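Title: [Solved] Integrase 3D structure

Original question kept below for reference.
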Amino acid sequence: MTIKSLGSGGWMVDVRPQGRTGKRIRKKFTTKAEAQQYERWAIATHHNKEWVDKPRDRSSLTNLITLWWDRCGSTLKDGDNRHIKLKATDRRLGFPRAIDVTPEAFAQYRAQRISEGIARKTVNNEHRDLKAMFNKLRELGLFHDQNPLTELSELKLPQTELGFLTKDAIRRVLSAFEGDNLKAAKLCLSTGARWNEAARLTRDRVYSDRVTYTETKNGQHRTVPITADLAKEITEGEGRLLFPDIDYDLARKILKRVAPEIPAGQATHVFRHTFASHFMANGGNILVLQRILGHSSINQTMVYAHFSPDHLADAVTLNPLVNLD
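Solution (posted by the thread starter after getting help):
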């Protein structure tokens, strides 16, 4: 009998999955059902020898990155970019073995990066990419150690200021822009699009006074109505791309010159913030804004809630000073 009762001590599994000459497995369980389940697993999987501790994976991080790229990374939409960043992280870490990428070692690495003036968000992105790579390799059965970064939390980020353009600032910016940069800016201000989403737009994505963004950050398509006048303006010409002469660097320089109040690092993204801020200030619905911006979570959109004219308005009428006399 491979399962026997131990009385109040539970149940014992005593089995040799590979026969009399094979390894003997003895294991205690609280209930008989658990013992039976384990017995079935041991017999069914004895050829895999999953109960045997495997040696630590001594592959180099370089080889694991190559393996990730060959089996998974090359198929991802942002795979090329992530591959480049992973190799850069590997180089900065000193081309370590996988077993040397410990929580302590990576914590020291990111502390060094911060001391060099690298933004916390950038360091967190490096952390996230490396952690995701280990998870994928484990999922594919190509890395059997524990993910070394699972227990290491990302750095906390300070809440960043969301800059937006006032109506006067919008007039200054649009007066300074011209050509495809002007058209793209108007489209971003009208739909909350990211600058690169507008830059990749093709003529077939504008139909019946609606713009459909397909190459988005989260991969989800979204369609936003625009005015007939704007639709006519941005579809002038015959080329496949709507804005073939768009110039991000020029747009950024103009923004810094005519709207120096924009927080550092936001550049053309200020158009997206401006749309969302004015949308809420004009009485827009936060759930509608979520759909327009393409946010997967309402928490992302809630950063604009305070622009609503009704935001926490009860604080005026329900505070303890009201009717105090």
